[in-house]
Amino acid sequence: MSTVKVYSLDNTPLHDLEISGALANPKLNNTLVWEAVHEYRARGRAGTVATKTRGNVSGSGRKLWKQKGTGRARISSIRSPLWKGGGNVHGPRPRDWSYNLPKKKRWRAVASVFAERLREGGVIVVDDLTLSSHKTKLLRSKMDALGLRGYKTLIIDSSENRNLMLASRNLSGVKTVSSLAINVYDLLLHEKLLISQPALTTLSNGILRILNGK
């Protein structure tokens, strides 16, 4: 178990909170983190690059000269890859680059990076992330009060918190995700994590359930 201080959105200390060992104890596993990042980036590849084969390029289909008797090499089509403007041989084709990393490995990687951020002091826990308005200015003022100005910040809360989702969209370097949609890439990209106490509980329970095979 590890203990963190819980704050209000106005940066008022409220109470201490014990964090489950599933999120606080794991050591940074570089190999596992690399695998999780590689899978995440593979899922984001468009896979739409393509080149034209001899069947796709434009050009006549007639035989340019007879097969034998000319003294020249035989040729079947002007679209042959041997000719300038012909088709491409073994070029890239559209494909799906995504693959599935085992669920336990993915969430172990998340827990590993989260625990490292916790040890660095990069995790700020607040009691509630409910905003009275969807205005970006309001969220900016709350983040400034928490000392997050100038930091790339990942905000973690329920996806049902509509005001938070709307208010964070126009803030540069800020991204908002739900607790069970978190990924290793975002944890590494952002220097600070701002998470609500309910979201932290949901994340901790979710990781425990997955790692225990439930």
Question: If you had to describe this structure to a student in words, what would you say it looks like?
Answer:
This protein folds into two domains: 2-46 and 98-211, 3-Layer(aba) Sandwich (Ribosomal Protein L4, Chain: A), CATH 3.40.1370.10; 55-93, no CATH class. Helix content is 35%, strand content 14%. It is α/β, with parallel strands linked by helices and 214 residues long. The relative contact order is 0.18. Helix 5 (162-168) links the parallel strand 4 and strand 5. The chain has helices spanning 21-24, 30-44, 103-120, 136-145, 162-168, 184-189, 197-211, and strands at 2-7, 13-19, 123-126, 153-156, 174-177, 192-196. The longest helix has 18 residues, at 103-120. The chain has a six-stranded mixed sheet, with helices on both faces. The protein contains seven helices and six strands; from the N terminus they run ββαααβαβαβαβα.
Short description:
The protein contains seven helices and six strands; from the N terminus they run E-E-H-H-H-E-H-E-H-E-H-E-H.
Residues in helix, %: 25-40%
**Gyration radius, in Å:** 27 Å
**Poorly predicted sequence stretches spanning 5 or more consecutive residues:** none
* Number of individual domains: 2
SSE arrangement:
Layout: E1 2-7, E2 13-19, H1 21-24, H2 30-44, H3 103-120, E3 123-126, H4 136-145, E4 153-156, H5 162-168, E5 174-177, H6 184-189, E6 192-196, H7 197-211
Parallel strand pairs: 1-3, 3-6, 4-5, 4-6
Antiparallel strand pairs: 1-2
Question: Which descriptors apply to this entry?
Answer:
214 residues; alpha/beta; Ribosomal Protein L4, Chain: A; 2 domains; six-stranded mixed sheet; 6 strands; 14% strand; elongated
